[in-house]
Specification:
This protein has 181 residues and is mainly α. It is 52% helix and 4% strand. It folds into 2 domains: 2-128, no CATH class; 129-181, no CATH class.
Length: 181
């Protein structure tokens, strides 16, 4: 059995892994389960693989040691889509399969995969930052308008000012408490 987790697994018998009702025990054949802990393979063991599985094993073994995994060898995938889907399924991380481009622009090696994931994260972070900046700007504009309305005595209650500038009354009251007239 291939095990990709980071906690050590003890080789065991099948009976150690399942709970059976008493009535089924006489019909149960117990087998020794050989566990291959992929995340604990050495570099020498990983180098023995000649298929795309070398990339998968390298990822899990090095990721266990260093959460900021960087592939050392940009070995090309032979089966890009299949490896990326496998990586997503095993790691429970959709970012691998999200890099698959149906138009044929699928990454050719793990370096390209990670670059795409990183670029997507940067784009999302920039979008969130810009949205937050817009929200803060709108709030600052509402605050400035609220003070003008109050200072010019155009509107005299925080509730009416809040309605005009589009915020909660509590927010206007807080602004005014921080900056009394």
């Amino acid at each position: 059995m291939l095990y990709f987790g980071e906690r050590r697994w003890k080789n065991c018998a099948l009976s150690d892994c399942v709970t059976l009702p008493e009535a089924l025990i006489p019909y149960f054949s117990d087998y020794r389960v050989n566990i291959f802990e992929i995340a604990y393979l050495t570099d020498e063991q990983i180098e023995r693989f000649h298929s795309d599985f070398r990339i998968v094993a390298d990822y899990f073994a090095h990721r266990r040691v260093d959460r900021d995994y960087r592939p050392g060898n940009p070995r090309k995938f032979d089966h890009q889509n299949e490896i990326l889907k496998l990586m997503s399924a095993i790691s429970h991380d959709q970012r691998f399969s999200d890099t698959i481009d149906p138009k044929g622009g699928t990454p050719k090696n793990m370096c390209e995969v990670l670059d795409r994931v990183e670029q997507k994260g940067i784009r999302q972070g920039m979008q969130k930052g810009m949205q937050k900046g817009i929200t803060i700007g709108e709030l600052n504009k509402a605050k400035a308008t609220a003070f003008r309305l109050r200072d010019l005595r155009i509107v005299d209650t925080p509730g009416a000012i809040a309605h005009i500038v589009g915020v909660e009354t509590q927010q206007v009251e807080q602004w005014f408490a921080e900056n009394p007239m």
